[in-house]
What we know:
Blueprint: E1 2-6, E2 11-17, E3 23-28, E4 35-41, E5 49-51, E6 59-60, H1 65-72, H2 82-88, E7 92-97, E8 102-108, H3 112-124, H4 130-148, H5 151-163, H6 177-180, H7 185-195, E9 201-207, H8 211-221, E10 232-233, E11 246-251, E12 257-264, H9 275-293, H10 298-305, E13 314-320, E14 323-331, H11 335-352, H12 356-372, H13 377-389, H14 395-400, H15 406-416, E15 422-429
Parallel strand pairs: 3-9, 11-15
Antiparallel strand pairs: 1-2, 2-3, 4-8, 4-9, 5-6, 5-10, 7-8, 12-14, 12-15, 13-14
Helix pairs in contact: 1-7, 9-12, 9-15
Amino acid sequence: MQVIENMKVKEKLYIEKLDNGLSVMIIPKKGIQKKYVIWGTNYGSNDSKFVVPGDTEITEVPDGVAHFLEHKMFEQKNGKNSLDVLTELGADANAYTTNDHTAYLFSCTDNFYEALDELMDYVQNPYFTDENVEKEKGIISQEIMMYDDYPDWKVYMNAVQAMYSDFPIRIDTAGTVETISHIDKEVLYKCYNTFYNPSNMAMVVCGDFEPEAMLAEIKRRLLNIKASGEIKRIYPEEPENIVKDYVEQNMEVSRPLYAIGIKDKPFEDSKNFTKEDIVKKHIAIEILLNLIFGESSDLYKKLYNDGVIMSNPSMDYEFSRGYAFVLLSGQSKDPKKVYEEFKKAVKTIKEKGIVEGDFNRIKKTIYGDYIKEYNDVTDIARMFLADYFKGINSFDYIEQIGSVNKDYTEQILNEVFAENKMVLSVINSK
Length: 430
């Protein structure tokens, strides 16, 4: 078992790739009562077109299959629902689907191994029938329609669709009522057998465990499944340009919502990019967002004091296979003013450069935030899983932040924060 130790956070990562291809990561937390397990597959809503290992023909499935699978995995042949079983054991269990991965998880303080039994049983033994698939269509259709009425989700999706014309990131994770109507048990089994192979999966365990003993417990519960070959994922060519720079919608909201998006080039478009490049760029963008629109920025203070915004916006850099974009979102009585002032602030910092003192202060704050993420087993496990599927070890952020200097950050500012790649999405009050 490989051991990676980070002295800055005083944590050790034990990682092993098993013979069947499954990657197991164990992060011991001595003296912590809470135990957390997350088991994920490198398969998300973007992966609707692919070539099965060993095949030559392209398989294309309806949008929403990854999310549909997540819903159906809990139902067992004996009539039980594994989510209910885990709850009865005192575990807090859940699952989620993103654009690039799906995960099943639980946390508990007692009955850990019984809960682990249940998790590893239902993830490895799917049960789909014509009847239960049809029943699920109604449930998921309601979920889709509910999200269509959810302003926070709509302002986000409208921004993404203003940036992307072809890449599947523009499609709702759950698909549409129309696309899920074409899903049947055969489609679900095909996608399960393709993407839920251990070689396409990873598990993270965090808590008070002896790593070797924990690994043995996991191995004991694994079915005898051989590793499969590499899955070829097929994505459409996405133009560099945005679709449109402004989109608005009227909904029942107390105050207008806004989302500012900046379309970036995916990492695959850069020659010879490394995981270090990915991490450094992500850190630089975090620093820039805080410099431009963080709580201590001139822009935030001005808009807040003028009553244009009530709180600091949510700020993020989203990226994975085939896409990357910056997103800032929040509430404002005047979203267009926020957008114009944001663009002015970006232009000013480009012209004048980054103030060294501000840069160092923000960088120090972000470093502190990275350290804090290691206080909670939930944050640790989810972070390591998501980063792993992006080809990153989460420790890399702690290690790389020191190498991100002002000159590099200004370079990223000029490369990414281009006005012709910016969009504004607004949800107005009816």
